[in-house]
Specification:
Layout lengths: L10 H16 L5 H15 L5 E7 L4 E8 L5 E2 L4 H9 L3 E3 L17 E9 L2 E10 L7 H16 L5
Helix pairs in contact: 1-2, 1-4
């Protein structure tokens, strides 16, 4: 049985510990829904000041909500729309200090104030995005971005080769 451990140390140490836990949790499992569900829960409960953690998967046309923790979410997001659609289209992590200042932000949860979205690509194929929202302005910094990108990479690794 998997058991999450309390994170300790500075932010870099905490993300290293979280990555190790995530790898253990996903080890040997290749189902993207199962791994997305468990990773969302692990991150949601491990990191402070989050109100939504989850995945949107690309269905060939648009992003469709996948496993998550938090309040009900927008179901479909067009590529290039909002923070998630922008991350998917540009292939670049979007770290947004104030979502109200982001042109075209889609307010799925009115409590969200900042957001970090990591695009998920397996080779050149868009899988979806890993999305985190916070009710705190400027919640995410470079250390968060680096740590969450590492977690997203570990998730992609469970899917196998493109």
């Amino acid at each position: 049985m998997f058991q999450a451990n309390t994170l300790s140390g500075d932010k870099a140490d905490q993300y290293a510990q979280l990555l190790e836990q995530a790898r253990g949790l996903m080890h040997g499992e290749h189902d993207r829904t199962a791994n997305a569900a468990n990773l969302s829960s692990l991150v949601f409960h491990a990191l402070p000041d989050l109100n939504w953690v989850g995945f949107y998967f690309f269905d060939g046309t648009e992003l469709v909500v996948g496993p998550f923790q938090g309040h009900p979410a927008c179901v479909r997001i067009a590529l290039g729309r909002g923070v998630c659609g922008t991350a998917a289209l540009t292939r670049q992590t979007q770290r947004i200090a104030d979502v109200d200042a982001f042109p075209g932000h889609i307010p799925c949860d009115s409590a969200s104030r900042s957001e970090l979205v990591v695009p998920l690509y397996r080779g050149d194929v868009l899988v979806g995005v890993f999305d985190l929202d916070s009710p705190v302005l400027d919640r995410f910094d470079a250390a968060d971005q680096h740590g969450l990108e590492a977690l997203a990479s570990a998730f992609i690794e469970t899917l196998g080769k493109a």
